[in-house]
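Re-running the complex after MR caught last week's input typo. The corrected sequence lines follow. Everything else is unchanged.
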Amino acid sequence: MSMSPPSSQDQPLAEQAAGNGLLDRRIFIKHGIALFGAGGLAVVSAPSAKAADPSSMPPWMQFPGAGMSSYGSPAKYENKVVRTLIQSKPGTTGSGASRTPIEALDGMITPTSLHFERHHSGVPDIDPDQHRLLIHGLVKRPLTFTVDALLRYPMLSRIHFLECSGNSLSMFGPTPPALTCGQVHGLVSCSEWTGVPLRLLLEEAGADLTAPWLLAEGADAAAMSRSVPMAKALDDAFLALYQNGERLRPENGYPVRLFLPGYEGNMNVKWLRRLKVTSAPIMTKDETSRYTDLQADGKSLMFTYPMDVKSVITRPSPGVPLQAPGLYEVSGIAWSGSGTIKHVDVSADGGQTWAAAALSDPVLPRALTRFRIAWKWNGAPAVLKSRATDETGAVQPTRDALISAHGTNAIFHYNAIQAWQVETGGEVKNVYA
Amino acid sequence: MSTRNLSAVMTSILALAAYASSMAQETPNLGRPATPAEIAAWDVSIPPDGAGLPPGSGTPGQGAVVYVQKCQACHGEKGVGKPNDQLVGGQGTLTTKSPVRTIGSYWPYATTVFDYVRRAMPYTESKSLTSEEVYAVTAYLLHLNGIIGAQDVMNAQSLPQVKMPNRDNFIVVYPTKPR
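Corrected-run output:
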Protein backbone atom coordinates (compact mmCIF):
# COMPACT_ATOMS: atom_id res chain seq x y z
CA MET A 1 0.00 0.00 0.00
CA SER A 2 1.38 3.35 -0.96
CA MET A 3 1.81 5.79 1.90
CA SER A 4 2.77 8.72 -0.29
CA PRO A 5 0.46 11.73 -0.52
CA PRO A 6 -2.00 11.51 -3.38
CA SER A 7 -1.07 13.25 -6.59
CA SER A 8 -2.82 16.45 -7.53
CA GLN A 9 -5.10 14.55 -9.90
CA ASP A 10 -6.56 12.74 -6.91
CA GLN A 11 -7.72 15.99 -5.36
CA PRO A 12 -11.30 17.01 -6.05
CA LEU A 13 -10.66 20.71 -6.55
CA ALA A 14 -14.37 21.32 -6.96
CA GLU A 15 -14.80 20.50 -3.27
CA GLN A 16 -13.04 23.70 -2.17
CA ALA A 17 -15.22 25.26 0.58
CA ALA A 18 -13.14 28.27 1.64
CA GLY A 19 -9.84 29.90 0.86
CA ASN A 20 -6.39 28.34 1.18
CA GLY A 21 -7.40 24.71 0.81
CA LEU A 22 -10.36 24.10 3.13
CA LEU A 23 -12.52 21.38 1.61
CA ASP A 24 -16.24 20.76 1.87
CA ARG A 25 -17.16 19.01 5.12
CA ARG A 26 -19.06 16.35 3.18
CA ILE A 27 -15.89 15.24 1.43
CA PHE A 28 -15.31 12.53 4.04
CA ILE A 29 -18.77 11.12 3.61
CA LYS A 30 -18.87 11.32 -0.18
CA HIS A 31 -15.47 9.88 -0.86
CA GLY A 32 -14.88 7.82 2.24
CA ILE A 33 -12.52 4.96 1.69
CA ALA A 34 -12.21 5.64 -2.01
CA LEU A 35 -10.38 8.91 -1.43
CA PHE A 36 -8.69 8.40 1.89
CA GLY A 37 -8.23 4.64 2.02
CA ALA A 38 -5.11 4.92 -0.09
CA GLY A 39 -3.33 6.82 2.66
CA GLY A 40 -4.26 10.23 1.33
CA LEU A 41 -5.33 11.63 4.67
CA ALA A 42 -2.30 12.38 6.76
CA VAL A 43 -2.62 11.93 10.50
CA VAL A 44 -1.19 15.02 12.14
CA SER A 45 2.12 14.31 13.85
CA ALA A 46 1.87 10.55 13.36
CA PRO A 47 5.32 9.00 13.12
CA SER A 48 6.30 8.10 9.59
CA ALA A 49 5.21 4.58 8.76
CA LYS A 50 7.96 2.00 8.86
CA ALA A 51 7.93 -0.60 6.13
CA ALA A 52 6.86 -3.86 7.75
CA ASP A 53 8.86 -6.86 6.62
CA PRO A 54 6.25 -9.62 6.32
CA SER A 55 8.94 -12.30 6.78
CA SER A 56 9.87 -11.12 10.27
CA MET A 57 7.12 -11.43 12.82
CA PRO A 58 7.13 -8.84 15.63
CA PRO A 59 7.64 -10.43 19.07
CA TRP A 60 4.08 -9.64 20.17
CA MET A 61 2.89 -12.04 17.51
CA GLN A 62 5.18 -14.87 18.61
CA PHE A 63 4.56 -15.10 22.37
CA PRO A 64 1.46 -14.75 24.54
CA GLY A 65 0.76 -11.28 25.82
CA ALA A 66 0.13 -10.03 29.33
CA GLY A 67 -2.72 -11.32 31.46
CA MET A 68 -5.84 -9.56 32.57
CA SER A 69 -5.68 -6.70 35.05
CA SER A 70 -8.02 -5.46 37.78
CA TYR A 71 -7.95 -1.86 36.63
CA GLY A 72 -6.69 -0.85 33.21
CA SER A 73 -4.20 1.83 32.29
CA PRO A 74 -3.13 3.49 29.05
CA ALA A 75 -0.56 1.99 26.71
CA LYS A 76 2.94 2.71 28.01
CA TYR A 77 3.67 4.45 24.74
CA GLU A 78 1.08 7.09 25.64
CA ASN A 79 2.73 8.09 28.89
CA LYS A 80 3.29 11.65 27.74
CA VAL A 81 -0.46 12.27 27.61
CA VAL A 82 -0.84 13.75 31.08
CA ARG A 83 -2.39 16.71 32.85
CA THR A 84 -0.07 19.70 32.63
CA LEU A 85 0.88 23.05 34.08
CA ILE A 86 0.30 21.84 37.62
CA GLN A 87 1.01 24.85 39.79
CA SER A 88 0.47 25.84 43.41
CA LYS A 89 1.66 28.89 45.26
CA PRO A 90 4.34 28.21 47.94
CA GLY A 91 2.93 26.54 51.04
CA THR A 92 -0.42 25.80 49.43
CA THR A 93 0.11 22.36 47.92
CA GLY A 94 -3.18 21.23 46.44
CA SER A 95 -4.47 24.74 45.82
CA GLY A 96 -4.29 25.45 42.12
CA ALA A 97 -5.09 23.72 38.86
CA SER A 98 -4.06 21.02 36.42
CA ARG A 99 -5.07 21.09 32.78
CA THR A 100 -6.43 18.53 30.32
CA PRO A 101 -4.09 17.82 27.36
CA ILE A 102 -6.90 18.47 24.87
CA GLU A 103 -4.45 18.48 21.95
CA ALA A 104 -3.78 14.76 22.51
CA LEU A 105 -7.42 13.65 22.75
CA ASP A 106 -10.20 13.05 20.24
CA GLY A 107 -13.94 12.54 20.45
CA MET A 108 -16.10 14.34 23.01
CA ILE A 109 -15.40 12.49 26.27
CA THR A 110 -12.42 13.35 28.45
CA PRO A 111 -10.84 10.34 30.15
CA THR A 112 -11.61 10.68 33.86
CA SER A 113 -7.93 10.49 34.75
CA LEU A 114 -7.25 13.51 32.53
CA HIS A 115 -10.20 15.68 33.67
CA PHE A 116 -8.86 19.09 34.66
CA GLU A 117 -8.59 19.98 38.34
CA ARG A 118 -9.09 23.20 40.25
CA HIS A 119 -8.91 23.00 44.02
CA HIS A 120 -8.94 25.70 46.68
CA SER A 121 -7.42 23.66 49.48
CA GLY A 122 -6.37 20.33 48.05
CA VAL A 123 -8.26 17.07 47.53
CA PRO A 124 -9.87 15.82 50.73
CA ASP A 125 -9.66 12.12 51.57
CA ILE A 126 -13.32 11.61 52.45
CA ASP A 127 -14.58 8.38 54.03
CA PRO A 128 -17.97 7.92 52.33
CA ASP A 129 -19.39 6.18 55.42
CA GLN A 130 -18.75 9.31 57.47
CA HIS A 131 -19.82 11.84 54.86
CA ARG A 132 -23.21 13.54 55.27
CA LEU A 133 -25.20 15.99 53.17
CA LEU A 134 -27.30 18.47 55.17
CA ILE A 135 -30.24 20.31 53.58
CA HIS A 136 -31.56 23.13 55.77
CA GLY A 137 -32.48 26.82 55.81
CA LEU A 138 -35.90 27.71 54.40
CA VAL A 139 -37.17 24.13 54.54
CA LYS A 140 -39.97 22.45 56.49
CA ARG A 141 -37.87 19.39 57.34
CA PRO A 142 -34.09 19.84 57.65
CA LEU A 143 -32.58 16.53 56.56
CA THR A 144 -29.25 14.77 56.44
CA PHE A 145 -28.43 12.13 53.87
CA THR A 146 -25.77 9.44 53.94
CA VAL A 147 -23.99 8.57 50.71
CA ASP A 148 -25.59 5.12 50.77
CA ALA A 149 -28.99 6.84 50.96
CA LEU A 150 -28.22 9.08 47.97
CA LEU A 151 -27.18 6.02 45.96
CA ARG A 152 -30.73 4.64 46.35
CA TYR A 153 -32.44 7.63 44.71
CA PRO A 154 -33.63 7.66 41.11
CA MET A 155 -30.84 8.91 38.90
CA LEU A 156 -30.28 10.53 35.54
CA SER A 157 -27.23 10.48 33.27
CA ARG A 158 -26.06 13.47 31.26
CA ILE A 159 -23.04 14.20 29.10
CA HIS A 160 -21.82 17.71 29.95
CA PHE A 161 -18.67 19.75 29.75
CA LEU A 162 -17.24 21.39 32.82
CA GLU A 163 -15.10 24.51 32.34
CA CYS A 164 -13.27 26.62 34.89
CA SER A 165 -14.21 30.24 34.33
CA GLY A 166 -10.48 31.03 34.47
CA ASN A 167 -9.85 28.84 31.41
CA SER A 168 -7.70 30.55 28.72
CA LEU A 169 -6.98 33.53 31.00
CA SER A 170 -3.39 33.78 29.74
CA MET A 171 -4.92 34.97 26.44
CA PHE A 172 -5.84 38.26 28.13
CA GLY A 173 -2.09 39.01 28.29
CA PRO A 174 -0.25 41.38 25.94
CA THR A 175 1.62 38.62 24.10
CA PRO A 176 0.28 35.23 23.01
CA PRO A 177 1.44 32.58 25.51
CA ALA A 178 3.88 30.09 23.96
CA LEU A 179 2.10 27.07 25.42
CA THR A 180 0.30 23.99 24.16
CA CYS A 181 -3.41 24.07 23.42
CA GLY A 182 -4.16 22.23 26.67
CA GLN A 183 -1.93 24.51 28.72
CA VAL A 184 -3.91 27.51 27.44
CA HIS A 185 -7.43 26.09 27.02
CA GLY A 186 -7.33 22.82 28.99
CA LEU A 187 -9.44 23.88 31.97
CA VAL A 188 -12.35 22.25 30.15
CA SER A 189 -13.33 18.58 30.12
CA CYS A 190 -16.43 16.54 29.28
CA SER A 191 -17.86 13.50 31.03
CA GLU A 192 -20.97 11.48 31.43
CA TRP A 193 -22.25 12.39 34.89
CA THR A 194 -24.85 10.32 36.77
CA GLY A 195 -26.69 11.38 39.85
CA VAL A 196 -29.83 12.47 41.66
CA PRO A 197 -31.94 15.43 40.52
CA LEU A 198 -31.53 18.14 43.14
CA ARG A 199 -35.25 18.95 42.96
CA LEU A 200 -36.12 15.55 44.47
CA LEU A 201 -34.12 16.18 47.62
CA LEU A 202 -35.34 19.76 47.98
CA GLU A 203 -38.94 18.54 47.75
CA GLU A 204 -38.32 15.81 50.30
CA ALA A 205 -37.00 18.44 52.73
CA GLY A 206 -40.07 20.58 52.08
CA ALA A 207 -37.90 23.41 50.77
CA ASP A 208 -39.56 26.73 50.00
CA LEU A 209 -39.14 26.52 46.26
CA THR A 210 -39.98 30.21 45.93
CA ALA A 211 -36.87 31.13 47.94
CA PRO A 212 -34.47 32.55 45.36
CA TRP A 213 -31.12 31.11 46.47
CA LEU A 214 -29.34 28.23 48.12
CA LEU A 215 -25.82 27.96 49.43
CA ALA A 216 -23.72 24.96 48.41
CA GLU A 217 -20.72 24.08 50.57
CA GLY A 218 -17.96 21.51 50.12
CA ALA A 219 -16.22 19.32 52.69
CA ASP A 220 -12.69 20.34 51.68
CA ALA A 221 -10.38 22.20 54.05
CA ALA A 222 -11.53 25.49 52.47
CA ALA A 223 -15.21 24.51 52.89
CA MET A 224 -15.52 26.12 49.45
CA SER A 225 -18.98 27.62 49.05
CA ARG A 226 -21.12 29.32 46.41
CA SER A 227 -24.66 30.67 46.26
CA VAL A 228 -26.77 28.97 43.60
CA PRO A 229 -29.96 30.39 42.07
CA MET A 230 -33.01 28.30 43.00
CA ALA A 231 -34.15 28.55 39.37
CA LYS A 232 -31.07 26.59 38.29
CA ALA A 233 -31.47 24.12 41.16
CA LEU A 234 -35.01 23.33 40.00
CA ASP A 235 -34.19 23.35 36.29
CA ASP A 236 -31.43 20.85 35.55
CA ALA A 237 -29.18 20.65 38.63
CA PHE A 238 -28.23 17.27 40.04
CA LEU A 239 -25.94 15.72 42.61
CA ALA A 240 -23.37 13.70 40.67
CA LEU A 241 -22.23 10.40 42.18
CA TYR A 242 -20.76 8.76 39.08
CA GLN A 243 -18.46 10.05 36.34
CA ASN A 244 -18.00 8.07 33.12
CA GLY A 245 -19.64 5.06 34.71
CA GLU A 246 -17.62 4.81 37.90
CA ARG A 247 -17.94 6.58 41.23
CA LEU A 248 -16.46 10.07 41.23
CA ARG A 249 -12.72 10.38 41.57
CA PRO A 250 -11.54 12.21 44.72
CA GLU A 251 -10.28 15.13 42.62
CA ASN A 252 -13.72 15.45 41.03
CA GLY A 253 -15.70 15.56 44.23
CA TYR A 254 -15.95 12.05 45.71
CA PRO A 255 -18.33 10.99 47.10
CA VAL A 256 -20.83 13.58 45.78
CA ARG A 257 -20.68 16.90 43.95
CA LEU A 258 -23.15 19.47 42.76
CA PHE A 259 -23.54 19.63 38.98
CA LEU A 260 -25.01 22.71 37.28
CA PRO A 261 -24.91 22.11 33.52
CA GLY A 262 -23.23 24.93 31.60
CA TYR A 263 -22.34 26.99 34.69
CA GLU A 264 -18.78 28.06 35.52
CA GLY A 265 -16.80 25.24 37.10
CA ASN A 266 -16.50 26.74 40.58
CA MET A 267 -20.30 26.64 41.01
CA ASN A 268 -20.27 22.83 40.68
CA VAL A 269 -19.25 22.41 44.32
CA LYS A 270 -17.22 19.26 44.94
CA TRP A 271 -17.39 17.11 48.08
CA LEU A 272 -20.85 18.58 48.71
CA ARG A 273 -21.82 18.52 52.37
CA ARG A 274 -24.39 21.29 52.84
CA LEU A 275 -27.21 23.00 50.97
CA LYS A 276 -28.92 25.92 52.71
CA VAL A 277 -32.05 27.44 51.18
CA THR A 278 -31.80 31.23 51.60
CA SER A 279 -33.56 34.45 50.70
CA ALA A 280 -30.38 36.12 49.41
CA PRO A 281 -26.90 35.19 48.23
CA ILE A 282 -24.38 34.67 51.06
CA MET A 283 -21.71 36.67 49.18
CA THR A 284 -18.94 34.14 49.82
CA LYS A 285 -15.30 34.83 49.04
CA ASP A 286 -15.51 32.96 45.75
CA GLU A 287 -18.53 34.90 44.46
CA THR A 288 -17.26 38.34 45.49
CA SER A 289 -13.48 38.65 45.55
CA ARG A 290 -12.62 35.74 43.24
CA TYR A 291 -15.00 34.77 40.44
CA THR A 292 -16.16 38.26 39.47
CA ASP A 293 -15.05 39.80 36.20
CA LEU A 294 -13.25 43.17 36.53
CA GLN A 295 -14.01 45.42 33.57
CA ALA A 296 -11.87 48.21 32.12
CA ASP A 297 -13.93 50.91 33.89
CA GLY A 298 -13.27 49.38 37.33
CA LYS A 299 -16.75 47.89 37.68
CA SER A 300 -17.02 44.13 38.13
CA LEU A 301 -19.59 41.73 36.74
CA MET A 302 -20.97 39.44 39.42
CA PHE A 303 -22.82 36.10 39.02
CA THR A 304 -21.64 35.50 35.42
CA TYR A 305 -22.70 31.87 35.48
CA PRO A 306 -23.10 30.32 32.01
CA MET A 307 -19.89 29.60 30.14
CA ASP A 308 -19.90 31.38 26.79
CA VAL A 309 -19.87 29.83 23.32
CA LYS A 310 -16.31 28.79 22.48
CA SER A 311 -14.20 26.56 20.27
CA VAL A 312 -10.56 25.72 19.64
CA ILE A 313 -8.70 23.70 17.05
CA THR A 314 -6.82 20.94 18.86
CA ARG A 315 -5.08 19.43 15.79
CA PRO A 316 -2.93 20.98 14.51
CA SER A 317 -1.86 23.16 17.42
CA PRO A 318 1.40 24.13 19.18
CA GLY A 319 3.37 20.91 19.69
CA VAL A 320 1.08 19.02 17.31
CA PRO A 321 2.66 20.07 14.01
CA LEU A 322 1.93 19.28 10.40
CA GLN A 323 4.50 17.40 8.35
CA ALA A 324 4.73 17.40 4.58
CA PRO A 325 2.21 19.37 2.54
CA GLY A 326 -0.87 17.31 1.82
CA LEU A 327 -4.35 16.54 2.99
CA TYR A 328 -5.05 16.82 6.71
CA GLU A 329 -8.03 16.68 9.01
CA VAL A 330 -8.33 19.81 11.14
CA SER A 331 -10.09 18.80 14.37
CA GLY A 332 -11.25 20.61 17.46
CA ILE A 333 -13.85 21.04 20.19
CA ALA A 334 -16.70 23.51 20.61
CA TRP A 335 -19.08 24.09 23.49
CA SER A 336 -21.58 26.51 25.00
CA GLY A 337 -23.09 26.80 28.45
CA SER A 338 -26.31 28.01 26.84
CA GLY A 339 -27.18 24.92 24.79
CA THR A 340 -26.11 22.99 21.72
CA ILE A 341 -23.49 24.01 19.18
CA LYS A 342 -25.26 24.97 15.99
CA HIS A 343 -22.24 25.23 13.73
CA VAL A 344 -18.48 25.71 13.72
CA ASP A 345 -16.78 27.61 10.93
CA VAL A 346 -13.10 27.14 10.17
CA SER A 347 -10.78 29.50 8.31
CA ALA A 348 -7.35 28.68 6.84
CA ASP A 349 -6.65 32.22 5.68
CA GLY A 350 -6.75 34.12 8.96
CA GLY A 351 -10.49 34.72 8.89
CA GLN A 352 -10.96 36.11 5.37
CA THR A 353 -13.06 33.12 4.30
CA TRP A 354 -14.79 30.44 6.37
CA ALA A 355 -16.12 26.94 5.74
CA ALA A 356 -18.55 24.96 7.88
CA ALA A 357 -16.92 22.04 9.69
CA ALA A 358 -18.64 18.67 10.14
CA LEU A 359 -19.92 18.08 13.68
CA SER A 360 -19.45 14.55 15.01
CA ASP A 361 -22.55 13.01 16.51
CA PRO A 362 -23.85 13.20 19.11
CA VAL A 363 -24.24 16.97 19.32
CA LEU A 364 -25.60 17.53 22.84
CA PRO A 365 -26.53 20.60 24.86
CA ARG A 366 -23.77 21.85 27.15
CA ALA A 367 -21.40 19.11 25.98
CA LEU A 368 -18.13 19.22 24.09
CA THR A 369 -18.85 18.92 20.38
CA ARG A 370 -16.15 17.51 18.10
CA PHE A 371 -15.73 19.27 14.76
CA ARG A 372 -13.66 18.19 11.78
CA ILE A 373 -12.80 19.57 8.36
CA ALA A 374 -10.47 18.46 5.58
CA TRP A 375 -7.66 20.82 4.67
CA LYS A 376 -5.24 20.53 1.80
CA TRP A 377 -2.17 22.31 3.14
CA ASN A 378 0.04 23.63 0.37
CA GLY A 379 3.07 24.04 2.64
CA ALA A 380 2.87 27.84 2.86
CA PRO A 381 2.37 29.73 6.13
CA ALA A 382 -1.32 29.92 7.08
CA VAL A 383 -3.46 31.07 9.99
CA LEU A 384 -6.12 28.61 11.18
CA LYS A 385 -9.14 29.75 13.19
CA SER A 386 -12.40 28.24 14.39
CA ARG A 387 -15.57 30.13 15.28
CA ALA A 388 -18.53 28.51 17.06
CA THR A 389 -22.20 29.53 17.04
CA ASP A 390 -24.66 28.09 19.57
CA GLU A 391 -28.41 27.45 19.42
CA THR A 392 -29.18 30.88 20.90
CA GLY A 393 -27.36 32.48 17.96
CA ALA A 394 -24.44 33.58 20.13
CA VAL A 395 -21.23 33.70 18.08
CA GLN A 396 -17.72 33.34 19.47
CA PRO A 397 -16.15 36.84 19.38
CA THR A 398 -12.76 37.89 18.06
CA ARG A 399 -10.14 38.65 20.68
CA ASP A 400 -10.28 42.34 19.76
CA ALA A 401 -14.06 42.42 20.23
CA LEU A 402 -13.86 40.59 23.57
CA ILE A 403 -11.19 42.93 24.90
CA SER A 404 -12.91 46.07 23.66
CA ALA A 405 -16.08 44.92 25.46
CA HIS A 406 -14.51 43.62 28.68
CA GLY A 407 -10.92 44.90 28.91
CA THR A 408 -7.86 42.83 29.81
CA ASN A 409 -8.38 42.60 33.59
CA ALA A 410 -11.43 40.31 33.67
CA ILE A 411 -9.39 37.07 34.24
CA PHE A 412 -12.57 35.00 33.80
CA HIS A 413 -14.83 34.04 30.88
CA TYR A 414 -12.32 34.38 28.02
CA ASN A 415 -13.98 32.80 24.96
CA ALA A 416 -12.43 34.52 21.93
CA ILE A 417 -11.54 32.93 18.59
CA GLN A 418 -8.12 31.23 18.75
CA ALA A 419 -5.65 31.77 15.89
CA TRP A 420 -2.90 29.22 15.19
CA GLN A 421 -0.08 30.23 12.85
CA VAL A 422 1.10 27.27 10.74
CA GLU A 423 4.68 27.87 9.63
CA THR A 424 6.47 26.59 6.54
CA GLY A 425 7.97 23.59 8.35
CA GLY A 426 4.58 22.64 9.78
CA GLU A 427 5.25 23.98 13.29
CA VAL A 428 2.28 25.75 14.88
CA LYS A 429 2.42 28.94 16.95
CA ASN A 430 -0.11 30.78 19.12
CA VAL A 431 -0.70 34.21 17.58
CA TYR A 432 -2.98 37.20 18.04
CA ALA A 433 -4.32 37.57 14.52
CA MET B 1 -71.05 16.40 26.21
CA SER B 2 -73.05 13.95 28.32
CA THR B 3 -72.89 13.86 32.10
CA ARG B 4 -71.37 10.45 31.90
CA ASN B 5 -68.55 11.70 29.66
CA LEU B 6 -68.04 14.77 31.81
CA SER B 7 -67.74 12.60 34.86
CA ALA B 8 -65.22 10.38 33.09
CA VAL B 9 -63.20 13.45 32.13
CA MET B 10 -63.32 14.77 35.69
CA THR B 11 -62.18 11.42 37.02
CA SER B 12 -59.20 11.39 34.68
CA ILE B 13 -58.31 14.97 35.59
CA LEU B 14 -58.40 14.10 39.29
CA ALA B 15 -56.39 10.97 38.66
CA LEU B 16 -53.84 12.99 36.70
CA ALA B 17 -53.59 15.58 39.47
CA ALA B 18 -53.15 12.85 42.07
CA TYR B 19 -50.48 11.25 39.88
CA ALA B 20 -48.66 14.56 39.40
CA SER B 21 -48.66 15.28 43.12
CA SER B 22 -47.52 11.77 43.92
CA MET B 23 -44.69 12.23 41.38
CA ALA B 24 -43.49 15.28 43.29
CA GLN B 25 -43.38 13.27 46.53
CA GLU B 26 -42.04 10.04 45.10
CA THR B 27 -38.62 9.53 46.66
CA PRO B 28 -37.22 6.75 48.79
CA ASN B 29 -37.51 9.23 51.71
CA LEU B 30 -34.16 8.36 53.19
CA GLY B 31 -33.33 11.78 54.62
CA ARG B 32 -32.96 11.72 58.39
CA PRO B 33 -34.28 14.72 60.36
CA ALA B 34 -31.43 17.05 61.33
CA THR B 35 -31.43 18.40 64.88
CA PRO B 36 -31.02 22.13 65.64
CA ALA B 37 -27.71 21.34 67.34
CA GLU B 38 -26.41 19.58 64.22
CA ILE B 39 -27.48 22.47 62.03
CA ALA B 40 -25.91 25.05 64.33
CA ALA B 41 -22.60 23.21 64.26
CA TRP B 42 -22.56 22.99 60.46
CA ASP B 43 -23.97 26.37 59.47
CA VAL B 44 -20.95 28.66 59.26
CA SER B 45 -21.99 30.87 56.35
CA ILE B 46 -22.37 34.57 57.12
CA PRO B 47 -24.40 36.78 54.75
CA PRO B 48 -23.93 40.56 54.46
CA ASP B 49 -26.59 41.25 57.13
CA GLY B 50 -24.45 39.36 59.63
CA ALA B 51 -27.08 36.74 60.50
CA GLY B 52 -25.35 33.89 62.30
CA LEU B 53 -22.30 35.84 63.46
CA PRO B 54 -21.19 34.27 66.75
CA PRO B 55 -20.73 36.03 70.10
CA GLY B 56 -17.32 37.58 70.70
CA SER B 57 -15.35 40.59 69.51
CA GLY B 58 -11.91 41.76 68.51
CA THR B 59 -9.89 44.91 67.86
CA PRO B 60 -7.13 45.71 65.36
CA GLY B 61 -4.57 45.62 68.14
CA GLN B 62 -5.58 42.12 69.20
CA GLY B 63 -5.69 41.07 65.56
CA ALA B 64 -2.12 42.20 64.92
CA VAL B 65 -0.89 39.64 67.45
CA VAL B 66 -2.87 36.82 65.83
CA TYR B 67 -1.83 37.95 62.35
CA VAL B 68 1.89 37.82 63.10
CA GLN B 69 1.54 34.30 64.49
CA LYS B 70 -0.89 32.75 62.03
CA CYS B 71 -1.01 34.76 58.79
CA GLN B 72 2.17 36.71 58.18
CA ALA B 73 4.28 33.83 56.86
CA CYS B 74 2.04 33.61 53.78
CA HIS B 75 0.61 37.12 53.44
CA GLY B 76 3.63 39.25 54.46
CA GLU B 77 4.08 41.92 57.07
CA LYS B 78 0.92 44.00 57.46
CA GLY B 79 -0.75 42.20 54.55
CA VAL B 80 1.64 43.36 51.81
CA GLY B 81 1.53 39.90 50.24
CA LYS B 82 4.11 37.32 49.17
CA PRO B 83 4.39 34.52 48.89
CA ASN B 84 0.58 34.54 48.75
CA ASP B 85 -2.23 37.01 48.22
CA GLN B 86 -1.78 40.67 49.05
CA LEU B 87 -4.51 41.67 51.53
CA VAL B 88 -3.90 45.39 51.94
CA GLY B 89 -3.64 48.35 49.57
CA GLY B 90 -4.38 48.46 45.87
CA GLN B 91 -7.04 51.14 46.15
CA GLY B 92 -7.13 53.19 42.95
CA THR B 93 -5.54 50.42 40.83
CA LEU B 94 -8.65 48.69 39.46
CA THR B 95 -8.73 50.71 36.24
CA THR B 96 -4.99 50.36 35.57
CA LYS B 97 -3.17 47.70 33.54
CA SER B 98 -2.14 45.98 36.78
CA PRO B 99 -5.10 45.99 39.14
CA VAL B 100 -4.36 44.86 42.70
CA ARG B 101 -7.38 43.13 44.19
CA THR B 102 -7.24 43.19 47.99
CA ILE B 103 -9.74 43.26 50.84
CA GLY B 104 -9.43 47.05 50.81
CA SER B 105 -9.53 47.64 47.07
CA TYR B 106 -11.94 44.93 45.94
CA TRP B 107 -13.98 42.97 48.51
CA PRO B 108 -17.55 44.31 48.69
CA TYR B 109 -18.57 42.95 52.12
CA ALA B 110 -16.73 42.90 55.45
CA THR B 111 -18.77 39.86 56.54
CA THR B 112 -17.06 37.85 53.80
CA VAL B 113 -13.70 38.38 55.51
CA PHE B 114 -15.02 36.86 58.73
CA ASP B 115 -16.76 33.99 56.89
CA TYR B 116 -13.71 33.13 54.79
CA VAL B 117 -11.06 33.41 57.51
CA ARG B 118 -13.14 31.26 59.82
CA ARG B 119 -13.79 28.51 57.27
CA ALA B 120 -10.56 28.40 55.28
CA MET B 121 -7.68 30.04 57.14
CA PRO B 122 -4.90 29.58 58.15
CA TYR B 123 -4.33 27.48 55.03
CA THR B 124 -2.46 24.66 56.75
CA GLU B 125 -4.85 24.48 59.72
CA SER B 126 -8.24 25.81 58.73
CA LYS B 127 -11.03 26.27 61.29
CA SER B 128 -8.48 26.42 64.13
CA LEU B 129 -9.05 30.08 65.10
CA THR B 130 -11.50 31.00 67.86
CA SER B 131 -14.34 33.42 67.09
CA GLU B 132 -12.46 36.08 69.09
CA GLU B 133 -9.37 35.55 66.94
CA VAL B 134 -11.38 35.71 63.71
CA TYR B 135 -13.05 38.99 64.79
CA ALA B 136 -9.64 40.37 65.75
CA VAL B 137 -7.88 39.42 62.51
CA THR B 138 -10.81 40.78 60.51
CA ALA B 139 -10.57 44.05 62.45
CA TYR B 140 -6.81 44.24 61.87
CA LEU B 141 -7.16 43.72 58.10
CA LEU B 142 -9.95 46.30 57.87
CA HIS B 143 -7.83 48.76 59.83
CA LEU B 144 -4.70 48.19 57.72
CA ASN B 145 -6.86 49.03 54.70
CA GLY B 146 -7.96 52.31 56.30
CA ILE B 147 -11.59 51.17 56.61
CA ILE B 148 -11.98 51.21 60.41
CA GLY B 149 -10.14 53.01 63.20
CA ALA B 150 -7.40 51.55 65.39
CA GLN B 151 -9.72 51.33 68.40
CA ASP B 152 -12.85 50.08 66.62
CA VAL B 153 -14.32 46.84 67.97
CA MET B 154 -15.64 44.27 65.52
CA ASN B 155 -18.49 42.07 66.71
CA ALA B 156 -21.81 40.68 65.47
CA GLN B 157 -23.36 44.18 65.53
CA SER B 158 -20.54 46.34 64.17
CA LEU B 159 -19.09 44.12 61.42
CA PRO B 160 -22.19 44.17 59.12
CA GLN B 161 -22.24 47.99 59.43
CA VAL B 162 -18.79 48.37 57.84
CA LYS B 163 -19.09 49.87 54.35
CA MET B 164 -16.40 48.53 52.05
CA PRO B 165 -14.82 51.02 49.60
CA ASN B 166 -15.55 48.96 46.46
CA ARG B 167 -19.09 47.99 47.54
CA ASP B 168 -20.92 49.87 44.79
CA ASN B 169 -18.76 48.70 41.90
CA PHE B 170 -20.34 45.29 41.34
CA ILE B 171 -22.93 44.77 38.63
CA VAL B 172 -25.12 41.72 39.24
CA VAL B 173 -25.74 40.20 35.82
CA TYR B 174 -27.78 37.14 36.79
CA PRO B 175 -30.23 36.28 35.37
CA THR B 176 -29.50 38.53 32.37
CA LYS B 177 -25.96 38.38 31.19
CA PRO B 178 -24.80 41.28 28.98
CA ARG B 179 -22.74 39.35 26.44
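None of the earlier attempt is carried over here. The CA atoms of residues 87 and 102 of chain B lie 5 Å apart. Residues 1-11, 13-23 of chain B have pLDDT under 50 and may be disordered.
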